Amino acid sequence: MRKQLGTHPKLFAGLALTLLSLPGAGWAQPTVSVTPSAGSGSSQTFSVSASQGGYVISEVYINFSDSSMSTLDCMAALVPSTNLLYLWNTPNAPNNWYQLPAGTSVSNSNCTLNAGASGHSGSGSSVTANFAISFSPGYVGTKTTWVAATSNAPSPNNTSGFVAKGTWSPATVPAPTVSLAPASGTGARGTFSVTATQQGGYNIQEVYLNFSDSGMSSLDCLVALIPSANALYLWNSSNNPNGWYQLPAGGSAHNGDCTLNGGASGYSGGGSTVIANFALMFQNPSYTGTRVTWFAAVNDQGVTSNWQDTDSGTETTWEVDPTVTLVNTGNWHTGLTNFYVGDTFTLTVSGEPSQSVTLNYTQNGAGGSLSEGFTDSNGNLVILGTETPGEVGTWTEQWVVGGVPAIPTLAFSVVPLGCTGTVVTSSRPGSGANDPPVAAGTLPDLNVTMPGATSTTLQVNGASTNPYSTSVSGITATPSATPTFTFQFSTTGFPLGGYIVVPTATNNGYSSTCTNTVGFFNVAATTPNPPPQANCASMTGSWAESTPGFGSWILTDLSGAISGYVAGSYTNGSCTFSPAWTISSSSYNSQNQSYTLFANNPQPPTGCGILAATYLSVTGSLSPAPQCGMGAERLAVRPCPSLELPIP
Asked: Is-above-0.70 flag for pTM?
């Protein structure tokens, strides 16, 4: 059977080919061969050589099939006299021959014949036909290469018949590889990036993303991108139920479970590597819980990555729920999970647009509920605030958007400003009650660590009746959540005697005086520490424990007039009482030049508790001179009212 086609009556037409029958003995027919006779690859130029002495080669054929040539998978022909090429069973000519226009390419389901790269050489009795063929991605496995030729010789010597001359394995086009970022997460919205990469010189043609269950039994939120057209698609949208809807440039589309924002979506790269970005929002309140994210890509040869649900060996999932984030934005404290009084914060609730937002909370175990407003058109509610003293304590917060609890449940603490620091003894004398006295005009250095403070001042007060006081700003070299401040000041002009220093922590306008963090120093008449003098005063004595509120000291080696005061403070939580003792009388013993000094203390209120600190400061005319400042003495702490003065 032959197909009559123009002036070429010998072109094959079907499987029942009479050319397959060999001619009788003694006759010569065309001989054929193919180069390469073996190999593999997705594309190749095959050279079929045909010759027959004394006759003209009129047609040359090649076909790829199985070992019995039961099919015409990829059959092509060339007519040397016209240099015309033909491909069998194309979409233009099903089950028939199609003549290729000059310089074009034509495909059937198994291969493509490129006329521009094909042709022939030679003529007459010897012709080499060159067929530039690319195999389709799905056409795989080892194939038998069949070749044939016809001539103008008398029948039956005018055909070689199809002869198996080799094998060829069309190379499989590699499948694209895909990955997803983020591979997991939580929220009612997100931008999901599918990276598709193609090897072998092919290009990425389509990228897909879907949210479903572990078996992908549904197309809940299926989106696609075609990079070559920068076109975005959403499946089963309100615009096109049960089908694809192409988004207009910069537009959005939604189905029952999600919205694809075209303005915030798109891609980068191109060709063999494409990163497709899908900006999605899940607007259905009932569409919550953990969803498996599926992603795929297709290359320009129609090979697909298949749907993937793992990235680096881990299943890709997304928790579709409203979210809440709380960030400490306080100066020096940014990023801390807890807060100090005065710290600023930014709280962001994300969920569906225009939904009510409710806060269920506990503070130190006591609970409550507040209505906080509504999410905006983008689904966000942003609250900026400052932690106040009234918010000190341990908190839990459960935010609810449109009736759906946001994740996570927040747990944090608001901490008072730093009154837990300690005045560090300076390398210079004078920062503690038992340190040598500080000489007038020197610079004591006092250091204090104050958690939560971003600035501080130090109040320097003379004990009791000493009216002198000054305020000194702290200096910190390294801002942190627990900074150490250094206070430097001169004692020039300070009256002789004892001083108490109390720091105040400040953060963003909120202050706390640290009554439990105090320091002491004494200012003496000589510097830095007077050597012992035979006639310098000393103190001995004790509180009269049998008489609450009454104390006595014995001052020796002192002559002339004396003056002084005793001061202290009781502290116990809500009770603060700062009495000033008065020197009620004194008794002078001329034999040993000693004074016995008596002082009365106003009775503290009931329940005041412990006397935190008491000072005695006495000056007098020494014999001989000079003046000798007695400085402050700190009393031992005992339950009120039994107190004791330590022996120096």
From this structure: no
